[in-house]
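Annex B. Sample input.
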Amino acid sequence: MINTFIRTVITSLLRMVILAVVREAGQQNYADRNVPSGQYDFIVVGSGTAGGILASRLSEVGHWKVLLLESGGAPPPESFVPAFNLALIGSDVDWKFRTVPQRYSNRAFQDNASHFPRGRCLGGTSSINWMMYVRGNRRDYDNWEALGNPGWSYESVLGYFKKAEDYRGKRNNDTASYHGRGGPLVVEDKRWSTPLLSGFLRAGQQLGYQVVDPNGPEQIGFSVADMTQRNGMRGSIAETYIKPAASRPNLHVATNAHVTKILFDKNKRAVGVRFQQKGKMRTAMARKEVILSAGAVGSPHLLLLSGVGPAKHLQQHKIPLVIDLPGVGHNLQDHPSIFGLAWMVRKGVGTSIPRLMDPENIKDYILNRQGPLTSPFGIEGNAWSLSPEGDPHWPDLQYLFLSGTPAMDNGLALWDLVGYRRKLFNQYFGDIFGRDGFMIGPMMTRPKSRGTVTLASRDPMRAPLIDPNFLSHPDDIKTFVRGIKFAISIGNTSALRDDFEAVFNNKVCVCVSGESFPKGNRDDLCLTQVLPGCEHEVPGSDAYWACFSMHMASTTYHPCGTCKMAPGSDPYSVLDHNLKVRGVTGLRVIDASMMPLITSGNLNAPVAMIAEKGADLIKLDYDVPVTPLP
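Annex B, continued. Sample output.
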């Protein structure tokens, strides 16, 4: 992890700045009542995007008593300022998970494993993420329904995206009918960008792609990132849903309450939960339902601890079986990305840490909520390329454009935050330490590899084993090779090469096809020195990029799928299409873990939709009228 002393100093300075200038950071009021008592109609476990929305929507029914349990506390002050998101990774509001060592990927990373950040505070990961609002592709949801999940087609869920959203952007007038107005989740145009963003968008046009609204009717193209922020500040679920609802007398928000077990009666009905708070074990009972919204790691972990899951696995840990559900913890999906393709540019056009702390930029943020502090660190835009197989408009690759490199801080801390091996990092990025630059990160949107979340121990305080199993399917490596080539073609356009003097982190010059030539004789492409570990391959060849992928591919922090929604005929089905856990009653899972297949983009917006729809499913089951969808 990042040097503890460095983190402490940086975080202390950030908090001093924030508390001095951002009034909202000192006015957190989530009506926390630390000691729950009595019975509740609904108990929601986890206050992230899904759980926070569910608690808010269910508590709209005045005669329902709702308990929201959160393992962490309130979001820290620095979470309010978008640019300080890096300070949150590995902090006290992060679960600090790590994957198990990977066999096919992460070879450039410490222990062949990844940091696996998940938010541990009110708002969950929405309080620490990169704030990008991306719904995914309409075909993602049509496919969910085609797999046997009625009610989850794009036309069925679009209204829930719009219900959640309060779109305040100015860019996407042509797609206004696809956006919602007046919902809790404020979505704004990105308020600040480096000059490199314009180059990225023009690069896409030079390659034949349009600038698009990826949350409109079609996704293929290049785009500026839409952000879940309000007036230049982070718009976490804690602020947009939980805080406005927390003053309701029928909603009880309990923090620092770590749930350890779901309680079942003899009829296999979920009747309550056991949780640890302030050093004591407590119990809360549910008259109607227990709802797990602890995320793609937390929800399957809690099911397994409670005796719901694969019988053999539970027997190994001597956990009494409630119901044999082989799919619990399986079907783990994530978006693997490669963040090692770096370009140098002329000084002054990229993101830099000193510019963030420039007094003029701080002043601009204080007075106008403008400037670099309004944007997550380095985030500029996205692109989705046409797919060569199947429907070309259902992309299998997304490209994240960042106006910085892992070497921008001269090797001080970012290398460890990402998780690289130090020696390899120094060899590969050493020549660009402190230089302005950008990265284009291919992100696989529809990977074929599947992983697991399993028990390390029956001890509920011990983290589960997280194995994304990245690149275990050989087709994923082929997809990355194609994605790397497209990323290089973006960086090699005149829009970036000529206008910003972009030069690939180079030592050896080659053609994209792999043909080598002496440096300076041609300018098709300049590659870095051979990545340590891939010396046996010809630089620039498909085999080299395959090796590069296996070394540099890692998580984009988008886990899902571990409590799969599927018809009963699927042996790995955990949930029905109403998100009820199979084989028991009174229990649902409503979060990213329900996804049968991952969506083609960042997951925060889809999870908000899932929670909005999940709340209506519950209301309809109890004959409570629901609000018509926009």
